[in-house]
Amino acid sequence: MDRLLVAEGESWRAPHEDELDSLTLNKPPEDAAACFCLFSVPAHMRTRFWAMLNEEASAGTGDFDEFSDDLAQFLTFKELPPPKNSVCELLVQDAHGKVRTGDVWALINFGEEPILLAWPQLHFRLVPGEGCRMTVGLPPDVVPPRKDELNVLLAIRLGRA
Amino acid sequence: MISAGQVGPLELLVIQPTPFCNLDCSYCYLPDRSNKRKMTLETLEKAFNWVFSSGLVRQPFTLLWHAGEPMVLPATFYEQATVLLERCNVSGFEVTQSFQTNATLVNDAWCDFILRRGVQVGVSVDGPDFLNDRHRVTRKGGGTLANVLRGMRLLRDHHISFDVITVLTSASLDYPDELFDFYVEHNITSVAFNVEEIEGPHVTSSLSGSGVEPRFRRFYSRFMDLALAADPPLRVREFDFAQNSISYHQQSEIRVQECRPFAILNVDYEGNFSTYSPELLGLSSPRHGSFALGNVARDSLESVLTMPRFVALDDEIRRGVELCQESCRYFPFCGGGPPGNKFFENGDFATTETLSCRLHKKATFDVALDKLERLKAVM
């Protein structure tokens, strides 16, 4: 699986089978929140996301809050309800941008290119339309895109108590 | 004794041109789907003559080619069938021909026939590949979606509109958004949901386990939110039915085709016929004997109506409807559960609730009522 890469010296490679076994689970974990969890955002939500941005850009009427509520409903259906008081934030990252991930509960790639998430010794490509719920206490770096490209992300951040 | 005037009028004529199906869906209720025999034109002509001389035809009706994959036979068979139909229909009743097909065999000749004869088409497809290809498989066990999509594309290229029937299994209930995306992506504007039922040789259903009902309601509620919010809204047969039942139940009594003798007539490839639920054709039970009541070549409607076997069957089905009426608060909106489901699940027609009732009727009705109340509240 070339979306998941492990470090080998200076370079990166696909994990060996035993490494993959130790990194993934074949059955639901006892503590689900301790796992990095992938999900796909349906096409109708991706279409609505861009329609909402276009509406905002052209007429100032894009309703981000309504979209965020719908996204939360979708995640709740998928048994990944966003934590109480969490907030959605639209992030556009350029080649020099840095994304603060310490309080991110989930990240969704709404762009058209994969986004590289980086942990020490481990990289993961988040493909377009894919989201991930973070592992508690192990926030990744979001690797900036190449020059002239943009990462378009929606972050769901833990709210302040 | 039941007289001819007390049965019908015919609303749906189901003709099985062949029991054979080129697919081998895991939940199929057809007991004889490997049988490649086909109905002869001679038998078909007898069937049409029987129908039009029976006194059952008193209004327009639908002729549905089904109970096997109808497109296994060439379009020329149906050309000849249509000529026979027109010849036998001497009073000129309006007859709408309809195909329920898996669409894998659609070609230009089919499209030409469908357009020329104004045939209605229903395509059976269960959504994206990870759902459809789990159950709707070839005889070698391979997935079928790619061929179904090719057939649907050809229909659309010829500007033929079609409805879709999706069978919901336990696996489907986790994917309302993905199903909705599938319909939108493939320009499907009208969908009907069937549930995986216990019928005939299919003796278990993935939906009969514990905890399914709340999952089903959750699925259907989510799906209807998406369908109603779409522009234009995606039409869902179950929602439309519930909406009409709610709107008109005080003006008219719900009359269920499957519960009324000879509102549906099912004719198999040999000319054997049955009534009530189409799934009963070709099956029998130790207590009832064969559910085929006669053959179009030799048995008149009058002779069937006096048969003790039919009288007992009709009585049992009527008692089942009465029990529904006495015990179920959904009866005014439903009119009685399908006899076939009662028999296959409960072993007796004079019974009430089935899996189909719980999911396909009660749950969809409750969700529709909830959505309609919400819509009313915001208007």
Which descriptors apply to this entry?
heterodimer; A: about 160 residues; alpha+beta; Jelly Rolls; five-stranded antiparallel sheet; 3 helices; about 30% strand; globular; B: about 375 residues; alpha/beta; ten-stranded mixed sheet; two-stranded antiparallel sheet; about 40% helix
Oligomer: heterodimer
What would CATH call the architecture of chain A?
A: Sandwich
Helix count, DSSP H or I runs of 4 or more residues of chain A = 3
Class from helix and strand fractions of chain A: alpha+beta
Radius of gyration of chain A: 16 Å
**Portion in helices of chain A:** 10-25%
Q: Give me the side-by-side strand order of the main sheet of chain B.
A: 7-6-5-4-3-2-1-8-9-12
The fraction of residues assigned to DSSP E strands of chain A is: 25-35%
Number of strands of chain A: 10
Largest sheet of chain A, described in full?
Answer: 5 strands, antiparallel
The structural class of chain B is alpha/beta
Sketch the topology of chain B as an H/E string, one letter per element.
EHEHEHEHHEHEHEHEEEEEHHHHH
Task: Give the topology string of chain A: H per helix, E per strand.
Answer: EEHEHHEEEEEEE
Number of domains of chain A: 1
Strand order of the largest sheet of chain A: 2-1-7-6-9
Q: How is the main sheet of chain B built?
A: 10 strands, mixed
Globally, the shape of chain A reads globular
Total strands of chain B: 12
Query: Which overall shape of chain B is indicated by the principal axes computed on the Cα atoms?
Result: globular
Q: DSSP helix count of chain B?
A: 13
Poorly predicted regions of chain A: none
